[in-house]
């Protein structure tokens, strides 16, 4: 009888140890799954931040380029206007000279 009781106790202890091991393994697997999910989320967020920063930098470069083009267009327009006014002034002076020469010729 005591041998059967001892065997039952050993079996119960083994079953308890196996059950404890199973619970520990499940807990370890759950912690690993949570940690893995957490890492995926961190990577995803880091990627989103990097993408947003890249887009921000691209937009900044586009605005800088646009601003530069506008400044160049303004400068070009200023030069063209200055050249146009100089040509107009030159024509006015030439016309005035021509008129004065015609008056003198009469």
Explain the overall architecture.
By secondary structure, the protein is mainly alpha-helical. The protein is about 100% helix and about 0% strand. The protein has one helix at about 1-105. The longest helix has about 100 residues, at about 1-105.
Overall, the morphology is: rod-shaped
What is the chain-wise order of helices and strands?
H
> pLDDT below 50 for ≥5 consecutive residues: which ranges?
none
Count of DSSP H/I helices: 1
Strand content of the residues, in percent?
Answer: under 5%
**Strand-pairing-aware structural class:** mainly alpha
Number of E-type strands: 0
Supply Rg. Answer: 45 Å
> End-to-end distance, in Å?
155 Å
- Outline the biggest β-sheet: none
Name the helicity range: over 70%
What's the assembly state of these chains? single chain
Summarize the structure.
This protein is mostly helical.
Task: Describe how the helices and strands are arranged.
Elements: H1 2-105
Question: Which short descriptors sum up this protein?
Answer:
106 residues, mainly alpha, 1 helix, rod-shaped
